[in-house]
Amino acid sequence: MNLDFSIFNWNLIQNFILKGLWFSVMLTVVATAGGVFFGTVLALMRLSGQKWLDAPAALYVNVMRSVPLVMVILWFFLLVPLVIGRPIGAEYSAVVTFTAFEAAYFSEIMRAGIQSIPRGQVFAGQAVGMTYGQNMKLVILPQAIRNMLPVLLTQTIILFQDTSLVYAIGAYDLLKGFETAGKTFGRPMETYLMAAVVYFVICFSLSAIVKRLHKKIAIIR
Amino acid sequence: MAMDWVVFCKDTLSGDVVSGCLGHGRDITYLNWLFTAWGWTVAVSLAALTVALVVGSAIGMIRTLPDKPWLVRLGNAWVELFRNIPLLVQIFLWYFVVPALIPSMKAFPPFILVVLALGLFTSARIAEQVRAGIQALPKGQRYAGMALGFTTPQYYRYVLLPMAYRIIIPPLTSESMNIFKNSAVAFAVSIPELTQYALQVGEETARPIEVYIAVTVLYAISALVINRVFAHIERRARVPGFVSSGTGVGGH
Predict the structure, then answer these.
(1) DSSP reduced 3-state for B244
(2) Architecture of domain A10-220 in CATH?
(3) What is the CATH number of the domain that holds B101?
(4) Which burial class, exposed, middle or buried, applies to A50 when counting CB atoms under 10 A from its CB (0-12, 13-18, 19+)?
(5) What are the chain A neighbours of B90 within 8 Å (beta carbons)?
(6) B251 pLDDT tier (thresholds 50, 70, 90)
(7) Number of domains in chain B
(8) Would you state the pLDDT for residue B243?
(9) Residues B11-30, mean pLDDT to the nearest whole number
């Protein structure tokens, strides 16, 4: 069995791989930003102490976490067009799905982060006359995000890997780019191997950076 | 939007509604098929969990061995390799690339290849937990074993591992539930499990909502059962004085 990697010229990389990489990175960035935002909202709902806020947020998070991501992707691909009345395409559907899905995971991270802030800080904020909103925005959340930064970034790396699951609805991501190139040039094995190498290099480098950051933050605290 | 649950009682070939909802012999209904698909999901998950526990434990232990830097490095490399490539890509590698490179694996059925993919992918994560569990033990436990004259395999077997496994049950629970969820990715190589069923039957019957609901509920039930089983094991095996948090984040 001989492998032939000569098909990987700049033309192929530009036309197939970079197109997919762009979508995977965009999906990761948008879903992380959106997921952290909505996840923080969900975390605040769960920590509010109000049952009518806590219960729906808890239900949402637990349902999302007990269903495979692939099924969530299929659900959104089916339901979003029904709700808004027109088809939106696999790529937009993927963005909506990942934002909604990751919000559930990020909310658990943010909840742990907020709970890691000593109660005294909350009281200190109240003592200097801050409102709940000011206290959250100026005292609690900046520290919570900083404390949880390594975990947030690790989750983002997992999220980047999971973007490959948009395969289920046929969106054009990094893996799809490799697969299409493999089919076009009749070299599926080489392209799958290269896909593995590229994912590995990206994820390994990112996790090495996160590890260093983790050490840095751990020393300061 | 009206639901039409009768769809599950239809014969998969003729499309006629079968009385009693379950077909017999060669006539099967979509409900029969659903249960078969659930069986495949359970089979893939349990087999992969076995592979993951065995390989993950071995790699995790290797990474804590004293005076064996090369074995430790090998274990670390294993974890990094299987953790930094998406599961779907790994499944494709096992399915398309490995049998072509290793001719003797051509005879392996897809089920085995998917189990290997999912099992080894998860083994990296379990290895990480086993390592953390062993390293979380006080150093004195290792020395106590040595002081009693145990060899390395002996003090691992009689002192470290029984403690380590009991304190890592909560993260192992999350990982076992993750295996059930991750088994959904096997649809990509046409293993007839629940997600593959949802895709195919949703299309065939033009009733995707009912089909997705049924499949989603079965996934949730599977996750719940695993959770209860492990909660029971955890209660029975809890080490007094050792509390480890069960909120492992990430991984789906």
Answers:
(1) coil
(2) Orthogonal Bundle (1.10)
(3) 1.10.3720.10
(4) exposed
(5) 196
(6) very low
(7) 1
(8) 57
(9) 82
Residue B129 lies in a domain: yes
- Candidates A180, A175, A181; CA nearest to A5 is A181
3-class DSSP state for residue B167?
Answer: helix
Q: Is residue B245 one of the residues assigned to a domain?
A: no
Query: Rounded to an integer, what distance in angstroms lies between the CA atom of residue B197 and that of residue B36?
Result: 9
Say how many C-beta atoms besides its own lie within 10 A of residue B26's C-beta. 6
Q: How many CB atoms lie within 10 A of CB B242?
A: 11
Q: Quick: pLDDT tens for B157-171.
A: 999 999 999 999 999
Domain extent, residue B73, equals: 5-237
Tell me: the pLDDT tens digits for A137-186?
A: 999 999 999 889 999 999 999 999 999 999 999 999 999 999 999 999 88
The pLDDT of residue B246 = 44
Instruction: Determine what percent of chain A falls in helix, strand and coil, rounding each to the nearest 5.
Output: 85, 0, 15
| pLDDT top residue among A24 and B240 | A24
Residue B179's closest CA among B245, B213, B223? B223
d(CA B42, CA B30): 18
Tally of CA atoms within 13 A in the half-sphere of A203 that contains its CB? 27
Residues of A in contact with B202 (CB under 8 A): 74, 78
Q: What was the pLDDT predicted at B5?
A: 86
Backbone φ and ψ of A127, nearest 5°: -65, -35
**B51-69: per-residue pLDDT in tens?**
999 999 999 999 999 989 9
- At B249, the pLDDT band (50, 70, 90 cuts) reads very low
> Chain A within 8 Å of B84 (Cβ-Cβ)?
yes
Distance from CA of B211 to the nearest CA of A (A): 11
Q: Give the pTM.
A: 0.91
User: Interior CA angle at A165 toward A164 and A169, to 5°?
Assistant: 115
Contact B146, B152 (CB under 8 A): no
User: Chain B partners of A67 at a C-beta cutoff of 8 Å?
Assistant: 181, 216, 219-220
Q: Is residue B251 part of a domain?
A: no
Decide which of A107 and A8 is more confident.
A107
Domain-embedded: residue B229 = yes
| CB spacing of A70 vs B185 below 8 angstroms | yes
- Rounded CA-CA distance A20/B9 in Å is 42
How far is CA B38 from its chain centroid? 14
* Per-residue pLDDT at A220: 61
Q: Within 13 Å, how many C-alpha atoms sit on residue B50's CB side?
A: 7
Whether residue A57 contacts residue A42, with contact meaning beta carbons closer than 8 Å, is answered with yes
Contact A66 B198 (CB under 8 A): no
